Amino acid sequence: MTSTHAGRDISVDIIRGIAIILVVLGHANRGQMETMAIAPASLQFLDFVVYAVHMPVFFFVSGYFTFVSLSKRKESIFLRSRISNIVWPYCLWSVIYCFVGHVMSSLTQVHHMVAWRQILLIGWQPISVLWFLYALFFMQIGAVLLWRRPVAILALSLVVDLAVAFVPSGMLPSIVVDIIVQAPFFYIGLLLAERGLPALPTVRQAGLWGTGILAVYGGLAYAMFEAHVGRPVQFVMLPVAFLGLLGLAFLSRAILRMHSLSFIASGLARLGQASLAIYLLHILVLALVPRMLHQMHVNTAAPALICGTLVGVAGSYALYLGLEKIRIARFFALR
């Protein structure tokens, strides 16, 4: 497998594949913690270390390719494309989550039921994981306005992120905070693209670098966790999160280059290419996991996490392939 295919950098697909697995793991872990009166520190740390890096990967990659898109077409055309690529999926899946949640509640326990009235509030209160599309839309609007000045917009995002650190908790809507704390990752991706740099760095011995950096990331994340800093993504966590992102970038390059890992590289790349579909579908698939675990008499955290992650990833991908086969995946905005 080469690093590019028809102009596509496969290592970017690989890092997205890794990130989407971490997304499913994170949600499976939170599902486990919600079943416990007091979640053990190990699960709380897993939640912290996963959430500190998985969504930053997606925002970083999105920022990079937003610049690439803007450099190839007019801003007005790019903005119109946001209707089909973001606004439509956002509205459609808001309705789907609400409808399917009510149906699934008759089959299994649904932790976060979506009331029908919440459909009327999606203009400022995203439902479930759809906050990502909501946040991405506003970041791309910012990019359209200042994409020729990436340093300025990155600096602005950092200043606002710092300012929010001093705002009392609960004073701002959660989606506003989510947009602000994730924006620096998006705009650093925009800046790298503007400078003509590759999305992921290329170095010799990428595997060694990746392993070392991720070890340091884990250590720093643990120190921050023990210091009770709160949110895993916030201004004080930026250096740690960027370190984790860099470690995953090197790891993705290393996986691509190693012929002995070609099967893993190919699988991760496919997951990365289908990451949006898996992201949208895994919430529905994970809702079935508690019932499955109960039937299998699985009551301990580690097997439940492994099962939840495997079912969430594989089940969502299989469902996506099925919808592709009957040619309705595009209707559901899954690609």
| Biggest sheet statistics | 2 strands, antiparallel
Task: Give the class from helix and strand content and strand pairing.
Answer: mainly alpha
**How many distinct domains?**
1
Output the radius of gyration: 20 Å
Write a structural description.
- The chain has 335 residues and is mainly α.
- The protein has one domain.
- It contains 13 helices and two strands.
- The model is unreliable at 1-6 (pLDDT under 50).
- InterPro entries: Acyl_transf_3_dom, Nod_factor_acetyltransferase.
- Keywords: Acyltransferase, Membrane, Transferase, Transmembrane, Transmembrane helix.
- This is Acyltransferase family protein.
Outline the secondary-structure elements.
Elements: E1 4-5, E2 8-9, H1 10-34, H2 41-51, H3 54-72, H4 75-104, H5 131-146, H6 150-164, H7 174-194, H8 206-226, H9 238-257, H10 262-273, H11 275-286, H12 289-295, H13 301-325
Antiparallel strand pairs: 1-2
